[in-house]
Amino acid sequence: MVSCTGTMELIRHLHTSRCIIRPFESGDEPAFVEFMTDPTATRYLLFPDEQKTEEGARSLLNCVIDSYLADHPIHSYAITLHNGAWIGSCGVSEVSAGGIWECYYSLLPKYWGHGYATEATATLLGHCFEDPSVCEVRAYVSPDNERSAGVAARLGMTDLGIRRYPAGDHCGRVFSMTKTPRCN
Across residues 76-80, what is the average pLDDT? Predict the structure, then answer.
């Protein structure tokens, strides 16, 4: 039986064949603000409208960076190409007891359709499942976001259908992947 207890440690750097997943840095601000203020990029994301402004994006980024020093950091990470170009973000957060976490992935639109989200998220999930606090990872996807659903499917996640998001009043398509053997 797999034990699902503990707190996941902050990721320092994960490498894929084309990308690096790392904690956000203050130098990411211009690209992060570009992303958060792009209505195409954030169309399906459940951020409040005030976070989709320059000031709100800066505040959100600083909150994430500051959290890295806390006992329970926000596991939100930058995705860059090996040349340093910032292309998006990914992350995980615990959504309920018993080791159930959610993952997310988002890219600047000019990087859509090249497999970066799948590549980065696959590496992130592999890392997460090495941690004893993670038994299941879910992706909550807007029902209209076929691109994101495609990423979840390519990752080998199981489509659980439409369900309510545990931390809000929204419903979406839920995809799941579990650690083997399944946790109790």
Answer: 98
